[in-house]
Amino acid sequence: MPSDPLVARHVLEFPGGYTRTTGPVIGRFLTELRARRLVGVRTAEGRVLVPPLEYDPATGDPVTGEYVEVGPAGTVTASAWVREPRAAHPLDRPFAWALIRLDGADTALVHAVDAGDPRAVPPGTRVWPVWKDAPTGQITDIAYFAPEVTKIVSPVRAEYRLRAGGALRVFLEGVARGVFLGGRCARCDQVYVPYRTSCPECGGRIGEPVELPGTGVITTFAINNLPDPRAPEVPFVSAYVLLDGADIPMIALIGDVPAHEVRQGMRVRAVWVPEEERTPSMANVRWFAPTGEPDMELS
Amino acid sequence: MNRCAVIGVGQTRYTTKRRDVSIAGLVREAALRALEDAGLTFKDIDAVVVGKAPDLFEGVMMPESYLADALGAAGKPVTRVHTAGSVGGSTALVGASLIQGGVHDRVLVVAFEKQSESNATWALSTHLPFSASLVVGAGGYFAPHIREYMRRSGAPAHIGTLVAVKDRLNALKNPYAHLRIPGIDQAMVESTPMLWEPIRYLETCPSSDGACALVLASEDKVTGTPAWVHGAAMRSEPIFRAGRDTVSPQAGKDCAADVYRQAGVCDPRRDIDVAEVYVPFSWYEPMWLENLGFAAEGEGWKLTESGATALDGDIPWNASGGVLSSNPIGASGLIRFAEAALQVRGMAGEHQVDGARLALGHAYGGGAQFFAMWIVGRERP
Ligand SMILES: [Zn+2]
Fold first, then answer.
1. Care to name a GO molecular-function term for this sequence (chain B) (predicted)?
2. Around Cβ B211, how many Cβ atoms within 10 Å?
C-alpha cells in the first residue's frame, strides 16, 4: 500500500516511566500485595476500602491506620466483556473487566477475569486471584482473577497393540484377496461370517473356512443423519447384509444408491476398493451396492 | 429362599448436568434418600451393590472402589455389577439375591450415570483396527431392528409418536423426571428430525445425570412400607448368533417366562397392574409388549394405539415417564425397578396407578441381549 506522506507515527513515552510516590496507605497495600496478601483500609465510619484510599471519599477525612486482610476470593458485582484484547491488556485472550468485591471489603476493585466465555461471569460469580510468578508490588501482581474450580479435565488414554491372530487373521487374509470367508458349525450346520472357530449358539467346532460370494440381501437398515467425523458423510445407510450362503448378517455401508431408495429385501454386492489399495481390513469393502436383481421375499 | 422386600427408594432429580456435585455426591444423595425412606442409616447396612454402565463412559475405572466412602461402605462387602444398559436391573437382582440367599439382612443398592461427564456414543463406538468405521451409537444400532418390527407387524408409522407423547405426559407428573415438555403432542414429535431413520429426535431418550438407590431387607428386618419381591430373573444371549431374533430376543422371552412363573403370573396383561419397562426408543414399547407376552406377536402396537398402556389404561406402562423421559444410563434399569416398588407401596405420588398390587420392573442392555426383570407386590408372597 502506498504510504501517505502526510501521515506520521508519533509516540509519547516518558523514558523509563514516571516514578510515583505511593504515600503510606497505597504503599502498604502494594507491599502486602507483593507478599501475596490483600488488605483494605478501614475508614473512620468503619467501612473497608479495597483498594485502599488515603482519604475517605464519603467524608473527606483521612482513613484510619487499621488495615484489614480481605479476600483472597471475591464476588463479581458487574463486568464488561473484552472480545479483542489490546496489547496493554493483562490477557491476550478474550476476558472480562470486572468489579470484584473481595470478601470482607465494602468496595469493589477493578480487575481482569479469565472466564473463557461472557456467560461465565454474571454478577455473583465467585472469583479467586491468580498470582504472577514474581510479585513486585503492583496491582498486576495479580495476573488476573479466575472463577472457582468446579471441574477438571481428566485425560484417559489406553494404548493397545492388537494382533489379528487365529480366525480373524484367516478372515482378513480373505478380505485382502477380495473374498469373504465364513465357516460352518459341524454340529448345528449354521454358516458364520466372519470366519470363527467355534459356534456361539451350540459351542460346536467350526472347521475349514468356506468362501462366500460377495452378494447378499439387505435384511434391515438405518438411515443415519447424525454427522460424526469418524463416520461416512450423512445421510448414510448402515445395513444388515445377509451374504448368500451365510446364516448371520454383517453390518455394512450401502452405497451407489440414494438413501431413501434402499429397501429391505434389496439384493446387493460388495464393491471392493481397487486391488492396489487393498489392505487386510474391512476398509477394503467400499460399500455394498444394489445388483439390480428383483428384491427377495423376507420371512 | 428367604423373602426379600424393598423398604427404601431414593432418586435424584434427573437433569442434563449436575454441576454442583461430584459422582460421589450424586450417588450419596440417592443413597441417603433411600435410607431416609427406610428410616435407617448407613450403620444399618450389611453390604452395598453398585451398578454402572461401562467405565469408559465417564472414564472412572472401577468407580465402586472410589464410591465406598460416599456409600458408607468402608469395611463392608461392596459388589460391582455391569451388564450394559440393563445394569440397574441386574444390580437390584444381585442385591436381592444376597437377601434371598440368607447372606445379608439389609443391602443398599445404588446405580448411577453422570452423562454430562461422558460421551456414551464415543464410548460405544471405539473403532477396532481392521473393522469398517460406521459410527452409529445406540440409536444407529437399534434403528434397523425397529424398522424390521414395523415391516413384520405392519404397524402404522404414528405408533412411535404415540409412545413418545404418552411417556412425556406421564413425566409431567413425576417430580424426578428429566424431560418436561408441556404441551407435547404428536405434531411436535413428528416435527422433529429423523436422527437414525426410522427414529425421530423426540422418539429417543435424553442424556441425564442421576442416581437411584434401594434399600432391600429380609423379612425380619422390614421397616416402613415394603414392596415384596415375588420374582426375579436374568437372562442373556450372544449378540452374534445365527438365527437370533433381534426384534423379539429369546433371552427376553425366557426371562419373562421365568419371572412370571415365580410370581404366579399366567396372563401378564391381566395379572400385572403396572409395568416399568426399559423403552429408550419409543418403538420399543410395542416391541416389548410382544416380547413380554402382554400382546400376541404383531399385536403390540394395537395395545399402544388403544391407549391400554396410558396412565388411565388397563395396563399402564411407564407411569413415571420411563427411560424416554430420564436416562442416566447405569441407573435407568434400577429406576424401573424402583418405580415398580413405589407403585405397589402406593408411594408414586401423582403418577400412582390406583390400587396397584403387582408391578413389573424390566431392563435390557447391550444389543438387546441382556435382560433383568422383577415382579414386586404389595402382599407378602
Ligand atoms: Zn452350532
1. acyltransferase activity, transferring groups other than amino-acyl groups
2. 31
